[in-house]
Structures are given as C-alpha cells and as structure tokens.
C-alpha cells in the first residue's frame, strides 16, 4: 500500500508547495459550473433582489457581531445569534437562485429564501427588544429543531475581519 511505502510520502497541498516550490505559474480564468461557465444562473434580473437581501444581512451581521466583540453575552442571546447565523447560511444557499433561474421550482426557491430571510429578521428583533419572551423562546426552539444543521455554529465566526 502507498501509505506503507518508504518511497512515497503522503502530504497535503500546503506542505507540498513549501517543500517543492513551483517552477511555473498560471493564471486561471474565472469560471463556474453554471450555464456557459458563467455566473448568470445565480446573478440575473430574477435573482438580483436576493443578492440585495444577502448583502443587507451580511452587513448587519458583521456590524452586530463586531460591536459585541468584548461583551459577555447571556445564553439566550447566544442561542438567538447562533440561530441567526444558521438562517444566514441557509438564505445564502446557491440552490435558491439556481431554482429560480432554471424555472425548476421558482416559487419554492423564492419561498425558501424569504423564509430564512424573515426568520433572521424576526430573531434580530429579539435582540433589539433585549429580551426573549416565552413566545420568542418557542419560536427559537422551533427554528432550532427545524434547521438543526450546523449544531456547533458559533455566531462569532461572522465577526468583521
């Protein structure tokens, strides 16, 4: 087997570049697996409004988290912020604009995008109010259960760099 060979060493790409400096360099052109190798499947007249919302959420999130950088955050806020992060990642999925553009499931794509956008906005209202009511807790729990991927997500990854 290769991993037992004395002649072959298994290393990652970063280490290989350190050990064996490239002799040539090539510039790769921008490309995509989208139609014609371009990005129009994701960014076009039908999806432009999604990107405006994505940038809005991105800016809001970075500013919010950066302003909380050195604060001690109560557990309820941490849970809200983490779920906001999940909603952000879900609304940024390339599936939604793809489904809209290709027409395979246009309404579904819009619905899913705006579901996550509205969830994010609703959660952000709890932070503005600086409290989580019983109804708010139930909503948060429902969202955590429904969209339970990225369980170990820490909202601080969205801090402005």
What does this structure look like?
Helices cover 55% and strands 0% of the residues. It is mainly alpha-helical and 161 residues long. The protein has a single domain, classed as Families 57/38 glycoside transferase, middle domain (immunoglobulin/albumin-binding domain-like), CATH 1.20.1430.
Present the secondary structure layout.
Blueprint lengths: L12 H7 L28 H20 L7 H17 L3 H8 L3 H24 L4 H13 L15
Helix pairs in contact: 3-5, 4-5
Element pattern in H and E: HHHHHH
What's the total number of strands?
A: 0
* Major sheet details: none
SSE-based structural type: mainly alpha
Helix content: 55-70%
- CATH architecture, by name, is Up-down Bundle
- What name is given to the CATH topology? immunoglobulin/albumin-binding domain-like
Instruction: Assign the CATH class.
Output: Mainly Alpha
Enumerate how many helices there are, as a single number: 6
Radius of gyration: 21 Å
Please indicate the count of domains. 1
Task: Write a concise keyword list for the protein shown above.
6 helices; 161 residues; immunoglobulin/albumin-binding domain-like; mainly alpha
Characterize this entry briefly.
With 161 residues, the chain is an all-alpha fold. It contains six helices and no strands. It has one domain (42-158): Families 57/38 glycoside transferase, middle domain (immunoglobulin/albumin-binding domain-like).
């Amino acid at each position: 087997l290769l991993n037992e060979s004395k002649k072959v060493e298994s290393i990652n790409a970063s280490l290989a570049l350190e050990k064996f400096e490239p002799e040539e360099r090539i510039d790769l052109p921008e490309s995509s697996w989208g139609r014609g190798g371009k990005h129009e499947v994701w960014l076009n007249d039908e999806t432009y409004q999604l990107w405006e919302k994505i940038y809005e959420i991105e800016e809001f999130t970075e500013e919010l988290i950066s302003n909380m950088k050195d604060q001690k955050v109560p557990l309820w806020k941490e849970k809200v912020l983490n779920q906001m992060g999940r909603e952000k990642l879900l609304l940024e999925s390339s599936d939604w604009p793809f489904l809209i553009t290709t027409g395979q499931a246009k309404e579904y794509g819009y619905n899913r995008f705006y579901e996550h956008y509205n969830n994010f906005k609703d959660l952000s209202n709890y932070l503005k109010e600086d409290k989580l009511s019983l109804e708010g807790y139930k909503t948060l729990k429902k969202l955590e259960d429904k969209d339970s991927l990225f369980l170990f997500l820490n909202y601080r990854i969205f801090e402005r760099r």
